[in-house]
Amino acid sequence: MGVDGRARVELGRLPAAGALYRRALVGALPGTGRGRGRELPAVELGVAGVTVEPAHLADYDRVCGFRLADRLPATYLHVLGFPLSLRLMTAADFPIPLTGVVHVANRITVHRPVQVGESVDFRTYAENLRPHDRGRQLDVVLVGSVGGEEVWRGVSTYLGKERAAGGGAGRDRGDRPAPPAASARWRVTPRVGTDYARVSGDHNPIHTSKLGARLFGFPRPIAHGMWSKARCLAALESRLPDAYTVDVAFKLPVSLPSTVSFSAVTSGDGWDFALHGGRDGRPHLVGTIR
After folding, report:
1. Which residues partner with 263 through β-bridges?
2. InterPro entries of this UniProt entry (predicted)?
3. DSSP string of the chain, one letter each residue
């Protein structure tokens, strides 16, 4: 048994992300698949002995702006273990369908640095299914351990929009505060979508295809939220401690191409940072490091 009485299922290897995305797309077609469950699956998936390919790590570092090093960026472990979480989320009885799901927040805790030569065991489960003004939210937890010691933990919060949802407060569309002074400005090209899809294995068409983006209501492809988080973290890389928690809320999507402004200020024992539109100042991401 896994955590909190969940049934533990050990996989022999990480699943192939491409096949899981195809399953999700087919299941979204009218007249296919079964009804979604209303409760979280009482299961925890695990896989042991996941290793890093140095060439893949170097490719990821380049795409996200990290220095080439043997220490794994905090966000890289999310990418490394994500196929396991994807297997959980594409199960027929998972309460929120993968197609159209919105990644609204992500929190990563690094207990200690992980080096490229270490073998990581992952486990994943879902928790905290709850109502939202626009549907339902839940958290997908991914835990990385080395030698039986937890070294890394990620919590991704996803929103599943539902037409019947409502009754809560609407989104505040009042005047937004002026964005903070920019520490840097980045030009985000369409290659960010395709390059990050390659290194992350996340080939959601809203990030790589104009047609795919339009099918989900976006006029242009959008940058992956975890690329935005990684790019902000890379900008602060030389000032990060060995152990920390980096917490972000994803606001408005970054359209491709566009220019964004990055800001970061020290705050007590950590950092407050944000990503805003370079022209209109609209918020894309706000985060903290503690």
Report:
1. 274
2. Fatty_acid_synthase, HotDog_dom_sf, MaoC-like_dom
3. --GGGPEEEEESSPPPHHHHHHHHHHHTSTT-S-PPPSS--SEEEEEEEE---HHHHHHHHHHHTPPP-SBPPHHHHHHHHHHHHHHHHTSTT-SS-STT-EEEEEEEEESS--BTT--EEEEEEEEEEEEETTEEEEEEEEEEEETTEEEEEEEEEEEEE-TT--SSPPPP-SPPPPPPPPSEEEEE-THHHHHHHHHH----GGGT-HHHHHHTT-SS-B--HHHHHHHHHHHTGGG--SSEEEEEEE-S--BSSEEEEEEEEEETTEEEEEEEETTT--EEEEEEE-
Residues 240 and 269 in one domain: yes
Q: What is the CATH number of the domain that holds 40?
A: 3.10.129.10
Q: Are residues 14 and 126 in the same domain?
A: yes
Of the candidates 114, 107, 198, 230, which has an alpha carbon nearest to the alpha carbon of residue 158? 107
The answer to whether the predicted template modeling score (pTM) of the entire model surpasses 0.85 is: yes
Residue 180 is predicted with a pLDDT of 84
What's the pLDDT score for residue 178?
80
- For 269, counting Cβ atoms within 10 Å of its Cβ (0-12 exposed, 13-18 middle, 19+ buried), the class is exposed
Number of domains, the chain: 2
Domain around 96: 1-162
The half-sphere exposure of 278 on its side-chain side, counting CA atoms within 13 A, is 15
pLDDT given for residue 170 in this prediction: 46
Give the position of tokens 């060439």.
Answer: 55
Looking at residue 17, what is its pLDDT? 79
Structure-token match 């007590």, residue found: 268
Clarify whether residues 26 and 105 are in a common domain.
Answer: yes
* pLDDT computed for residue 28 by the predictor: 56
